[in-house]
Amino acid sequence: MFNKHLSEKMYGVSTEADLRKLLYGTRTDLTAGEFNSICDHLSKFDNPQYLEIGVYFGGNFNKVANFLKNNFKDYHITGVDLFETLMAQDQCDLTHDILNKWNILNVAFKDDLSDFLQSSGIENFSLVMGFSDTAVKNLESAFDVMFIDGNHTFDQTLKDAEACLERSKKGSFLIFHNASSDIEPDPQYIEKDGGPWRVCELLKKRDSLRHVGLFDRCSIFEVI
Asked: Nearest Cα to 103, choosing from 38, 6, 199, 29?
């Protein structure tokens, strides 16, 4: 799990503890267009409530939190992830497992990320550890923008979508990452079982949703 050679080569540190300190608040592969699409839709609300499934080391979560902090007086941001419990999961069913994403250190700890966010001046946030669809269903809030970027199997993405719809309201937006058909690494998810792209194709047929568009790898739906 911890790659000491890459840690020394890329970050100049030789221990997992030191590497963790450097990684929290980083590790996002969203393009500028994808990140801006999230912010643009959050900006449609006076007091935005944001949900992110698949927080990882908090790279995108931290960027969105800072955007909200700098632009709104009242907001809340909630993140859901397996965090350290990922290490105990059956890897054959995962697309974002402990080995295949960054090959240096791939499991974030919930309390460590929370400490980082607080030390960075982020206050209005909640982190929830657990299986995403179950955790989201157990939340009490309704959300304005929900970003789904967890396990990218078709079955899990659909479960996450249904859970988010239970926490949505008229005018809410669902944003699916890795939902393109031709931008890497999305084709591998389609080849496996259809992945987020297939889920989005199904959702386009629902009368309760309007497909806003595809922004790089982000497919966006509005609850109508």
From this structure: 6
CA distance 158 to 155: 5
Model pTM above 0.90: yes
DSSP assignment letter at 98: S
pLDDT at residue 98, as a whole number: 41
- Six-digit token string for 159: 């479960």
* Amino acid, res. 130: G
Looking at per-residue pLDDT, the higher value among 223 and 7 belongs to 223
pLDDT tens-digit map of 157-207: 999 999 999 999 999 999 999 999 999 999 999 999 999 999 999 999 999
| Four-CA torsion 207, 39, 133, 2, nearest 10 degrees | 150
Domain total in the chain: 1
Rg (CA), the chain: 17
Contact 42, 144 (CB under 8 A): yes
Cα–Cα distance for residue pair 137/66, rounded to 1 Å:
26
Q: What is the pLDDT of residues 63-93, one digit of tens each?
A: 999 999 999 999 999 999 999 887 666 655 5
Cβ atoms of residues 194 and 188 within 8 Å: no
Question: How many Cβ atoms sit within 10 Å of the Cβ of residue 119?
Answer: 10
User: Strand 209-215's sheet: what is its strand order?
Assistant: 125-129, 76-81, 49-53, 145-148, 173-176, 218-223, 209-215
Work out whether strand 76-81 and strand 49-53 pair parallel, antiparallel, or are unpaired.
parallel
Instruction: State which H helix or E strand residue 41 sits in.
Output: helix 32-42
Supply the CATH number for residue 37's domain.
3.40.50.150
Contact 56, 83 (CB under 8 A): no
Q: Residue 128 is part of which domain span?
A: 4-223
